[in-house]
Amino acid sequence: MVILLLGSTGRVGSRTLSTLLAGGHVVRVILRSPSRLTDEQRAYAKLSIICGSVTDPEFLKANLDSVTAVISCLGHGFTFRNVVFDDHFVFSSAKAVISAIDALRPQAPIKFIQLNNVGVNHPSEDIRSGIEKALLSAIHCAVVPVEDSQKAFDFISSTDSPFIEWVVVRPDHFIEGDAAEYVIREKIEVGILAQRDIHMSSIAHFMCRLIADNNLWEEWKGRSPVLYDKHQKGGIVLP
To answer: What is the pTM of this model?
Structure first.
């Protein structure tokens, strides 16, 4: 099984890369500088490091040979420049991935997993109050990375390509630490002001499980699961 990983040096992406390599997968990463990988990661014989653009469909197509799944952990650093002047990097990459897979026309559908967040508006979720929906709309307009995440989600979830099967993973509040027991939900259960924690290593664990476990993939393909740690602050244990 060959996995193409985008965003392999980010907070979740680096954990996903280590988990994939520990699982014995053949992994290709596309990044700007190989020096951003750890020495331990670069030492793996099953890791191929490719320098190039993750928003170029032709470049992506050339590196999809034998690939069975694409995982995108691309995200944004919340600097002033990114918040105000970001160029919709996540959306552009998602669009390029889908365009590249369509152009390749693989015999079997390629799995596409995209890391997103609970801040995106999902048409089937009605838990949000009117005030919260208005707040989210204002944030989407004012904060470019949030708008970018929404555009990526809308684009992926609307694709009808026969060559792609997708899952958009929506964790809540990222925290540091080793993978812990977590729960998978079909929809959000709390508003954006009542955050629930999820360890970044647990997010990586779930995305790698999606690749390896066909039953889990069949359960969640074409959907956007929400992830929470089972054990929350204050002694709260989620059912």
So the answer is: 0.90
